[in-house]
Design goal:
With 312 residues, the protein is α/β, with parallel strands linked by helices. 36% of the residues lie in helices and 15% in strands. It contains nine helices and ten strands. Strands 1-2-3 form a three-stranded parallel sheet. A three-stranded antiparallel sheet has the order 4-5-8. The protein has a two-stranded antiparallel ribbon with strand order 6-7. A hairpin with a 3-residue loop joins β6 (160-165) and β7. Belongs to the class-I aminoacyl-tRNA synthetase family. GluQ subfamily.
């Protein structure tokens, strides 16, 4: 009997969306590999989007380095690459659609931290993140000038967002209590990640988002924005993140190096691709990069089937 196909929206459109704050490191490769394999397993498209709205952190030439690294590893995207910095006018139209859900805020990060400490001193439960106390939601506080733009979250009842992650299972978050009204345009004038990513995923028709688990906490906010904008909800799969020796997420900030600098293309199979596959739970042997992908696609499909069975 033939194996039934994995459940999937049709047509499948996935994406890899790196930030050009430096070259791809091994942790980035894991996320790219997972999203690429998932698109291939489902016979879908794999898009690449450069998420460069955080302009202060962009590194000149990093976007081209990222694209070259993907190609050296045998990952070819569909269609044209997009850059978020070329889409600011589009984000303005999305902002206008949110209307009264958006308000100006004059609070600094330090002031929000101080407010949270005062609430805790008065008996409020502490939170791991920085929860906005709503200081400016009914108008700018006296003496304040507008800095950022925030999105209102429902107060009564609280806004609890739940979704089914294809790796982690059922996930839920009370964004009212755990996040509060969140920033969609920053005090420095740059668009916040949450708005830009939701706008672009909707515009590109993304059906499946495969990315690192460090972004799992952002997903409920994105689902809330999608609902306000009338956008369809993609499926989500958050893979584990690679950690540095310190135990922190491997990143440019923790000293992660490019996985392919000074490495001949023929050596990338053993130095980068096979280790990334093993991290994802794919134990493969391959003769070259083309052979790797021929073996990795069915291995990823088998891994997904096993995870489906475990969650059944």
């Amino acid at each position: 009997m033939p194996t039934p196909p994995l459940p999937s929206p049709l047509p499948y459109i996935g994406r890899f969306a790196p930030s050009p704050t430096g070259p791809l490191h091994q942790g980035s490769l894991v996320a790219a590999m997972a999203s690429y394999l998932d698109a291939k397993v489902h016979g879908g498209q794999w898009l690449v989007r450069i998420e460069d709205v955080d302009e202060d952190r962009n590194v000149a030439g990093a976007d081209r380095h990222i694209l070259a690294s993907l190609q050296r590893c045998g990952m070819q995207w569909d269609g044209e690459v997009t850059w978020q910095t070329q889409r600011y006018a589009f984000y303005e139209t999305v902002l206008a659609q949110l209307g009264q859900h958006v308000y100006p805020c004059g609070c600094s990060r330090r002031e929000i931290q101080d407010s949270q400490l005062r609430l805790q001193a008065a008996g409020a439960a502490p939170h791991a993140g920085l929860v906005y106390p709503g200081t400016c939601r009914n108008g700018l506080a006296p003496g304040k000038t507008a800095r950022a733009l925030r999105l209102r979250t429902p107060q009564q009842p609280h806004c609890v967002i739940a979704f089914q992650d294809r790796w982690h299972g059922q996930v839920s978050q009370d964004i009212t209590a755990e996040v509060g009204d969140f920033v969609i345009r920053r005090a420095d004038g740059f668009w916040a990640y949450q708005l830009a990513v939701v706008a672009d995923d909707g515009a590109q028709g993304i059906t499946d988002i495969v990315r690192g688990a460090d972004l799992l906490d952002s997903t409920p906010r994105q689902l809330y924005l999608q609902a306000l904008l009338g956008l369809p909800q993609p499926r989500y799969l958050h893979v584990p993140v690679v950690l540095a020796e310190s135990g922190e997420k491997l990143s440019k900030q923790t000293g992660a190096q490019a996985f392919d600098d000074g490495v001949p293309a023929a050596a990338l199979l053993h130095s980068a691709l096979l280790p990334a596959a093993r991290f994802l739970g794919l134990h493969l042997a391959a003769n070259d990069i083309d052979d790797f992908w021929r073996r990795a696609v069915p291995a990823w499909e088998q891994l997904l089937r096993e995870r489906l069975q475990e969650g059944a």
